[in-house]
Structure formats: structure tokens, C-alpha cells
From TrEMBL:
The keyword Transport applies. Belongs to the leucine-binding protein family. Residues 1-16 form the signal peptide. InterPro entries: BCAA_transport (IPR051010), Leu-bd (IPR028081), Leu_Ile_Val-bd (IPR000709), Peripla_BP_I (IPR028082). It comes from Microbacterium arthrosphaerae. This is Substrate-binding domain-containing protein. The keyword Signal applies. Pfam families: Peripla_BP_6.
Length: 400
């Protein structure tokens, strides 16, 4: 058994009530025999993510890209060194309880690799199960910083909130003495962004406050008015899901975008038209859009997704990276969880965004980020790359 290096963060202690699951069967006795190289003849990977619910669109991006990434990483064979990789998908609907139930069922069936999760709340709950049951877990688009370093068994295939915030900071001059308001949903993702802004921009001398909105809210005018009344020097918006359009409409109608500089993450393609004429007033940090990176892996991913009838989008790299990481873990770890964990610590690989590094100490995924603007194009808006921000400039502080 591995000794956990990091203490569970206080913000996620509430997930303890989700209960314990039986330990997974040992990897030394995989079903179906072994290959000539000593690995199991078959490994089942459980993909637990949102196929329904408010983050279903993110789940689809991840799943489409994961399929493309598995094909890429196995040269179209679906196996590595004689080990066949079988995928079993489960829909968590963005519900931590539903996700934990699915993970327990998968572990009970002998699965010792779990991946996926678009929701940060789900990721934190699944990470706890990974530690309790000693299985490998690779989180997906979930961005909460608390996922990084939470335990020895948890990795991530996407970026985290601290990388978003650090990228936002690259738009600014000296912010010492300025006031920054974080406008976000009152969930793990939003709270994680508040903590990241406090740590990063607050660490540069800014005063940080927040306006947090209930996740099920549908009327945003009062909250936009609250932001405006606070007269901050900068507004950092952290938002995800289907209510983005209504939120931005309220921000625009209440004059926030005219009165105060606003920086936010550029969402998926479905949100590009949500900003309307205000698009050119917003500073966008960006995790990914298909035209941002220029490399062979990105080209291969985009072509594969499009050929399958999908559309590459914001969280496509997360699915593609996850497949590459899982193939690496199985190849080097031969199905043994501790060996698979070791195979990923310090792993460097070429992903759709270019060079990626799994930081050994806390499993953060170090990667480039982007500055982007939206430009008018035939009655709609499309993203245009302003600058690539080097991975080391926005690397999160190591989790303690």
C-alpha cells in the first residue's frame, strides 16, 4: 500500500460521508491470464463522466477525444504490448453520489483504472474513492485545484484553476493595491477559483473579494448589480455550463463590461456567440481551441474527431491526454496500480497542446496556456490567438 503524501484538503472533507467501498481485487491476478511481457491480457478502464446533466457537453468533448486518443496511442489496435484495453462508460450526470456509486460498482468488478469527470465536485469525491480502494484515477476537465496533490493515486489530464488565474494575470500590469472581484458559481469549481485568485493575484498585492452565485440560479441581474456596486478594478469571471449565456447577458445589460475590465476563460464553441457585441470588450484566457496549437498531435486529434462526426472543442485535449496517460500506465505498470502510478509520475509526452509534464511531486499537469480574443466573422464570433503563455510561467505552486 502506498503512503499518502498529501493531507485531504479541508474543503473536501465533506465527501467523507460518501462512505467506504471494498478494496479492489489485486492487480497481480488479472482475469484472463497474462501476456508474454508479464502484463494482463486485458485491462478494463472505467470512464465516469457527464453524459447527461448540465455538463453533458463537456463530457461528450472528453469522450470523443478519448476515443481518438486511444486509437492514436495504440496505433489503431486498442491494445498495448498484447494487453487489450476495454472501456466501460458510466454517466455521473454531474452528481457526486451517482459517480461514487458507479466507481464502487466498477471497482467491485475488478476495475483499477478510473478516468473522466467534468465536475470538480465529482472529481473530489472520486479521488477519495481512489485513495480508499488504491486504484489509479485520472481526472478530466474538472479544474478545482484541490484535485492536485489530494493523494498518491489521483492525476489529472487537463488544466486546473491556478493555471487559469495565472494566465489571467499575464494580461495585467502591476496590480498591487487593486481590488479584484471573482464572479463565479458557488460550487467546487467557483470556490477553487476564488482560492486561486486569492493565492495568486492576492499574493501580488491585490485585495480579492467574491460574488458567488447558486449553481441552480437562472436570474443573474442582481448579482451583476452587486459586482458593479463593488467598483472593483478587475473582474475575474469563472463560469461553466449551460447558464453562461444568460449570465453574460446580465453582465452586459447592467453595464459591467463597459465600466470595469473583465477577464475570463474562453469557454467551448457553444459559448462564442453568448457575449454578443461585448465580445471584443472581454480579455480571454484559454485552455484550448482547435486553432491555438500548431503541432502534429493536435492535427491528428482534430482530424480523428472530425472524421468520427464530432467537433474538437475546449476539453478535447483532456480526453486525448487521458488516453495517452492510460496507455503509458498500462505499458509500464503491467496492470499493477503502484507501478502504474510510478509510470505516470514525471511522465513527459506530446499532447495536442504540445509538451506536457506530469509533475512528480503532486501530479499537476504542466502545460502551455493561451491569450485569446473573439473577432467578428460573418455575423458570429470566432477565437483568434493573441499569445501562447509558456507552461512554466503559469505552473501552479506545488501542493503541500
Amino acid at each position: 500500500m502506498r503512503v499518502t503524501k498529501k493531507l485531504l484538503l479541508g474543503s473536501v472533507v465533506v465527501t467523507a460521508a460518501l462512505g467506504l467501498a471494498a478494496c479492489a481485487p489485486t492487480a497481480e491476478t488479472p482475469s484472463g491470464g497474462a501476456t508474454d511481457g508479464g502484463g494482463p491480457s486485458e485491462v478494463t478502464v472505467g470512464i465516469v463522466t457527464s453524459e447527461s446533466g448540465p455538463l453533458a457537453g463537456y463530457g461528450k468533448q472528453y469522450l470523443d477525444a478519448f476515443e481518438a486518443g486511444l486509437d492514436y496511442a495504440t496505433d489503431g489496435t486498442g491494445e498495448i504490448d498484447g494487453t487489450t484495453i476495454t472501456i466501460e462508460n458510466r454517466d455521473d450526470a454531474g452528481d457526486p453520489d451517482k459517480a461514487v456509486t458507479a466507481v464502487k460498482e466498477l471497482i467491485g468488478e475488478g476495475v483499477n483504472i478510473i478516468a473522466g469527470t467534468a465536475s470538480s465536485g465529482v472529481a473530489l469525491a472520486v479521488a477519495e474513492q481512489a485513495e480508499q480502494n488504491q486504484v489509479l484515477y485520472i481526472s478530466g476537465p474538472a479544474a478545482a485545484d484541490a484535485v492536485t496533490g489530494i493523494n498518491d493515486y489521483t492525476f489529472r489530464s487537463g488544466r486546473q484553476s491556478a493555471q487559469d488565474v495565472a494566465t489571467a494575470g499575464t494580461f495585467l500590469d502591476d496590480i498591487e493595491g487593486r481590488t479584484v472581484t471573482v464572479f463565479a458559481q458557488d460550487n467546487a469549481f467557483g470556490q477553487g477559483n476564488v482560492a486561486a485568485v486569492e493565492a495568486i493575484l492576492g499574493g501580488q498585492g491585490a485585495t480579492v473579494n467574491s460574488v458567488l452565485v447558486a449553481e441552480d440560479a437562472t436570474e443573474f441581474t442582481p448579482f451583476a448589480q452587486q459586482v458593479l456596486a463593488g467598483e472593483p478594478d478587475l473582474v475575474f469571471v469563472a463560469w461553466a455550463g449551460a447558464t453562461s449565456g444568460a449570465m453574460w447577458q446580465a453582465m452586459s445589460q447592467q453595464g459591467v463590461l463597459d465600466e470595469i475590465p473583465v477577464v475570463t476563460g474562453l469557454g467551448d464553441a457553444a459559448t462564442f456567440g453568448a457575449y454578443g457585441e461585448a465580445s471584443e470588450k472581454i480579455n480571454f484566457l484559454n485552455h484550448y481551441f482547435p486553432g491555438a496549437p500548431d503541432n502534429d498531435v493536435n492535427t491528428a486529434m482534430v482530424e480523428a474527431i472530425e472524421e468520427a462526426g464530432g467537433t474538437p472543442d475546449l476539453f478535447s485535449p483532456d480526453g486525448f491526454n487521458a488516453a495517452i496517460m492510460i496507455v503509458q500506465a498500462i505499458k509500464e505498470g503491467k496492470g499493477d496500480v503502484d507501478a502504474m502510478v510510478a509510470a505516470l509520475e514525471g511522465f513527459e509526452f506530446e499532447g495536442p497542446k504540445g509538451s506536457m509534464t506530469v509533475r512528480e511531486s503532486d501530479h499537476a499537469l504542466i502545460q502551455d496556456m493561451y491569450q485569446v480574443k473573439l473577432v467578428a466573422d460573418g455575423g458570429t464570433f470566432v477565437p483568434e490567438l493573441v499569445d501562447t503563455v509558456a507552461a512554466d510561467e503559469v505552473a501552479p505552486a506545488e501542493a503541500e
